[in-house]
Amino acid sequence: MGVMGQVIFFAGFILIFYFLIWRPQSKRAKEHKALMSGLNKGDEVVTSGGIAGKITKVTDDFIVVEISNNVEVKVQKVAVAAALPKGTLKDI
Prior knowledge:
- 43% of the residues lie in helices and 32% in strands.
- With 92 residues, it is of the alpha+beta class.
């Protein structure tokens, strides 16, 4: 029972690790990759630094975000935390 118990314990530990850590992390990474590839001009986004604005230009690795009238910031695509529903910035 000693060796078999250790094998069962180890297998249980692997399953817990998979379902609680690895699988959710993989799902979040896949969703973020889909978000980055779906960014278009005119989308409203929030960066990981908390800056909210509207995308005015999209390149391969960077986007240009207008955060106020005539104020634009270049941001890496990977720094985009979330896409906002249209019209959210007008309500702020």
